[in-house]
Amino acid sequence: MLLLKIIYEGDSIIVDELQELKGYYKDKNIVLGICESIDENTHFIKILCDDDVYNEKLKSAIQLRVSTILYKIVVSIFKDKELYEILTDSYFFLRSDEIPELSDKIIKGLNGDENIKDETSIYCLNRQNNIIEKIKECIEEKDEINVEGFIRFRMKELLGDFQSIVDKIVETYLVEKEYNEFVKLLKYFVEVQESKIDELHIIIDSSGSYHLENREGKDIMDEFVNELLDCKMGSTINVEDMIISGLITNAPQKIIIHGAENSSNKELIETIKNVFLDRVIICSGCSRCVKTKIKI
């Protein structure tokens, strides 16, 4: 029973990928036949199975797998013919040495090589699945796919999805770049700043509220607030910004964070760690940590 017919020109990754597919189903006791004929430079491949194992579920699974193979081909074409132009036209402000780095990130995003770790990787995966589904819909129209014809007539339909992935990855890159430059600047301020506090304890209680104490256990939150008021930083500053500003101003020799798991702003904790490096200790068990179990 014919499951799918594939037509392509010249060399391609298709045959190797189909052999892997054949091996995959062999392990499941399903024998697939891969029949190939060549007319000059045109390859005709038929994927077949025995009548007794044929069903719509198997057919759909084969179509999905072939769609994934074609997706890889389309990504390769996009990389070679479209990506550089998009980056240099839409993001002309990027430095020349940033283009290769970004290109690698984008290709990894397009290929799904990145671990699912953040919003960007989830976004890329969803877009990737969207493109594969569009390819599959094309295959379902005739139970066959002409690779060159698809690329010639359907590639433009996919460019919007590719552009969205590029935009998302570039946006994330620029945000990370800005953050790293911010951290670098703060580290410089800390290095040149004379330390005014030898030991500072940041206590985050179960409600996520922050409390600042010195070595002796004295609450010094008000001192941080008053310093900012003296600097005329305004009354709209939030507590996280106030803590960062106070830390930079006072440059403690040691910062001990209690109840870090209670913080709703994980970026604050990471920023403190990135700026103050080995001055930071994340405490997980002391008398002050007991306070983090309750609202203070």
SSE topology:
Blueprint: E1 2-9, H1 14-26, E2 32-39, E3 42-49, H2 56-90, H3 98-111, H4 119-142, E4 144-146, H5 147-192, E5 199-204, E6 210-214, H6 221-230, H7 239-250, E7 254-258, H8 266-276, E8 280-283, H9 287-291
Parallel strand pairs: 1-4, 5-7, 7-8
Antiparallel strand pairs: 1-3, 2-3, 5-6
Quick tags:
elongated; 296 residues; alpha/beta; 4-stranded mixed β-sheet
Could you provide a short overview of the structure?
The protein is an alpha/beta fold.
Structural commentary:
By secondary structure, the protein is α/β, with parallel strands linked by helices. It has two domains: 2-187, no CATH class; 199-292, no CATH class. Helix content is 57%, strand content 16%. It has helices spanning 14-26, 56-90, 98-111, 119-142, 147-192, 221-230, 239-250, 266-276, 287-291, and strands spanning 2-9, 32-39, 42-49, 144-146, 199-204, 210-214, 254-258, 280-283. Strand 5 and strand 6 form a beta hairpin. The longest helix is centred in the middle third of the chain and has 46 residues, at 147-192. The relative contact order is 0.09. This is Putative sporulation protein YtxC. Pfam families: YtxC (PF08812).
